[in-house]
Specification:
By secondary structure, the protein is α+β, with helices and mostly antiparallel strands. The chain has helices at 2-12, 95-104, 106-131, 135-145, 156-163, 167-181; strands spanning 17-21, 26-28, 36-42, 45-50, 56-62, 67-68, 81-84, 88-94. It has a domain at 2-106: Jelly Rolls (Sandwich). Helix 1 packs across helix 3 (106-131) and helix 5 crosses helix 6 (167-181).
Length: 188
């Protein structure tokens, strides 16, 4: 099924315009009119929501092959910011072309619907993690969903945003975990 979806995305994005983004550069901003669907070719982009307290919540991480903010295909305006995490390139497909291609090709539309269903499942998993009251539990659940490996030090702020906490709270939790696993030493 994954190969079928990859082929379908290749077909859907055929002829899309290549775009490049620097680390931290916006692909689009909340409130902008939806103009393009972006499929990540290289790098990583994320979908961000800004919280009233000034924090940021990561709603989606899109690596190579993924489509960022795919639900925007059916929206007038973006509801979040799209931002390149690192230097990234995308294929930008005008939404009117995407809609026309999906309408003309039922098998392509079916593959797209399957992809959206998998994204809904992933979003529900992220919501379950965010519903956990304690950061320690959120971190455990996040590690269990992935490969159990923390991102490198320079990318842990992004993990904090994904977990819906401040970077400082995440750093304190990581320090507590390191302290619990540190070997006991004998005085003198």
């Amino acid at each position: 099924m994954i190969a079928i979806m990859s082929d379908a995305l290749t077909e859907l994005f055929a002829g899309a315009r290549p775009r490049r983004f620097a680390a931290g550069e916006r692909l689009f901003a909340s409130g902008d009119r939806v103009a393009f669907l972006h499929r990540v070719v290289a790098g990583e982009a994320r979908l961000l929501r800004h919280r009233p307290d000034g924090g940021r919540l990561v709603l989606q991480r899109a690596g190579p092959g993924a489509v960022l903010a795919e639900a925007s295909l059916f929206a007038e305006r973006y509801h979040c910011d799209g931002e390149a995490v690192v230097a990234s390139s995308t294929l930008a497909l005008p939404v009117f072309e995407a809609r026309a291609r999906l309408a003309a090709r039922p098998e392509l539309a079916l593959a797209w619907a399957g992809r959206l269903a998998r994204e809904i499942q992933a979003a529900r998993q992220r919501a379950e993690i965010l519903a956990l009251p304690r950061l320690a539990d959120r971190l455990d659940a996040w590690l269990a969903l992935g490969d159990g490996v923390l991102p490198p030090r320079g990318r842990r702020r992004e993990l904090a945003a994904e977990l819906g906490v401040t970077p400082e709270a995440l750093y304190r939790e990581l320090a507590r975990r390191r302290a619990r696993t540190a070997p006991l030493t004998r005085p003198g």
